[in-house]
Amino acid sequence: MCAYNSFADIFEEVKKRLTLSPTAMRLWIDPIRPLKLNNNQVLLYVNSQFVRDMADNNFSNLMRDEFSNLLGFEVELKILCDKDLTPEQKQHYGIEEDTEEGLAKELEDDLAVKTKLDKSEQESNYKHTFDTFIVGDNNKLAYAACKAIVQESNTKYNPLFIYSQPGLGKTHLLSAVKTEMERLHPEMHIIYTTADTFTDDFVSSIRSNRTEEFKAKYHNCDMLLVDDIQFISNKVETQQEMFHTFNYLHDQNKQIIFTSDRPPKEMNGIEDRLISRFEWGLLADITPPEYETRVAIIKRKAELFKIDLPDNVTEYLADKLKTNIRQLEGAITKINALMVVTGVTPTLNTAQSVVRDILSNHEPIPVTVEKIINEVAKAYNVSADDIRSPKRSAQISIARQVAIFVVSRVTGLSYSLIGEEFGHRDHSTIVYAITKVKTILEKDPSFKSMVEDLVKSISLNNR
Fold it and tell me: Which whole number is the average pLDDT over 285-298?
């Protein structure tokens, strides 16, 4: 073995012996620093947990072998990250606090990698069309209404008002309508805008004394699609202009579609007359996707990227990313980026690293099943034990079914996991309960109001 002045020198020699691409070296190996060689134990450190996981999962065996070859004896290799060390240990090793920028920033700085990723994105042909929109129980009404508008010249869905939490597909549907209408009717003049852009256009027209041009622009369209209409809240003059624009287009039988993060009646700071216009046509809500829909979304996105995603990776992502479709799609995009950069086939460890990187530490603590069951039990004047028990009285049965529905809606757990929480009930029992509640919701307004109040109360109390 050659003589080296320090463990750092040994590590530098090991790095020279690694047969990795320059990009892989820069992203996963160069950030690592040597800490200590203690007998046969090699301790390495990297600030980012994400980089630690990638290096540990994909390159640690290779580094261990090179250390052993260089030192002449077998070694154990351990890569630590920031959370593994106490402040005293950091001080001892001379580690300064650093800000983790993650993979995205690294990729932005690498032109060759960015070119590869751009090419991969283009080849995936992932566009906001009806073909790439995954339909589930959570969004089928909004989807069907949008398809009907495209397929029929005059529908009763005017206006169509789609509302949901952010990241559940409202913008996707608006884009799909625009794309399909332009394909079928290239002669039509379609305006797709946001509430903020509408406001900016209106304010600019006032400043430049071109309000007639503004009116001509919005009044002469054949279809108006407005995303995030809630952002005209408390903007009195903008609301007045939207009111007049709406009336003019509606009188001309021109289709109007709005999206919002809440239903009209919950929109504060908006005039009643405009709220009433929003409610003239069809209100369609989109709720968080259920487990099966999340799996379908992941598989479709992976298919477009030509990624052969193992079932355990798909199931893990669907189980952990429950409330936001953008997160699901972002996870697949990030896995694709890792494959482009490293050539490594995605594993469960990769998925775990990606999920940790996506989920913010500032997100609310997930609602527990126990909390939901307790809330439903109070509403039906039964006990939580009754809901979990085999008892089949009418009161307990409906409480159990509502609790199962609310758990599915709020937590997004898979049906098998929900079954475990409710006394080890099987998948078909959970499906039956959810279907039963949905059927009653469609027929009984008071029951629907009660269930929605429960969902809202549980969700709000968790913030």
Answer: 91
